[in-house]
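Long-time lurker, finally posting.

We've been working with Membrane protein (Sorangium cellulosum) and I want a structural starting point before designing mutants. I don't trust myself to interpret raw outputs, so I'm hoping someone here can both generate the structure tokens and explain anything notable. Sequence follows.
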Amino acid sequence: MMTRAQRTGLAAVVALLACSNAALAAEPSPTALPITVVVLRTDDAYDQAGALTQALRSAIKEAPGWSVREEDFSLEVLTLSLQCDDRPDAGCQARIADQIKSDRYIWGMLRKSDTEVEGELHLWTRGKPESSVPVKYSANLTEANDEPLRKIAAEAIAKLTGGPPSGALRVRTGAAQASVFIDGKPAGNVHNGEATFTVAAGPHDVRVKSAGFLDSQASVVVLPVATTDVALSQMPAESTRTNWKRMGGFIGLGAGAVFGSVAVISSVQVASIQSDARYVAYRGLFTENVEDVCALENRRAIQDDFTADAKTARKGIELCERADTFMALQYVFYPLAVASAGVGAYLLVTSDGQTAERAGWSVQPSVGLGGGGVDLTYRW
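Top reply, 14 upvotes:
Generated this for you. Predicted structure of Membrane protein:
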């Protein structure tokens, strides 16, 4: 019989094996909530525990709205260091969350019996009830990429999380009463020009219908655990003639909002790269007097420096290349957003008075980022 200290040593080895593929994990982003997967505890199924741990991480990476934290922790080591029982109770689970600095994590226990492995998986979420799911499968599944094990992990993640995380979508319209359709399905009605719906985080198609007005539609990315705004204009359906100038104004404002959204998203991406731990490690390869470590000459210099860590340099250069792409998008789309919105506003102001007198509706949609929206509203 192994002592607890011996089992802890083996658990640490399993943790090292599990982290060998950690680079596969999806990176946390404004549209994905992070989950930490703690290396499963076992007394006799170490290969299976390591494989299932990594399979769970891969399954989370592929699940919409979720991402995996790259830190690796072992349940065996954590319970020992926190002086908890082998099977942590509710209080110990909360202390584990504080120890690993995570608001949600998966932990579990496995045991081998003859030709099978069985046990249970748990998802701890701060401020919410714990969810759990039993697992039982053949003991010969010892590789994380085994298709049956990948399927088991994917089903477990779907049951534990309940699907993609939710967010709030606030729809604003110019009409006092309107019907809202999300992804082609009726979602409810707008009262006094506004309504809020709970939907799965991620991209959605929103359409507004109301009597006497043309339908209005927009695509929006809903952020998890946040409120995302979308404003939709509705043009009167009884218009006797097409006001091309006014239509061009709405198109210009809508294009400006879209271009601005792309530019803002690019800025968010550049900021996330600058705070990435891999970029910080890459920055540390240079002396303090080097201001732009992503400059082409500095990239070449660090590649030729045999004293620098090659892996860190390579990862840093890859992040620099990503940053180059998003910086280029900013240079293009910020001016386009300003120009399009300016032209659209000018066309609306100078459109003829017949149509303008019957107007008075919100402008084209704007997509919220970081829990807020970029709302452009004009009334004429």
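Before you design anything, note these points.
The CA atoms of residues 283 and 297 lie 14 Å apart.
The radius of gyration is 26 Å.
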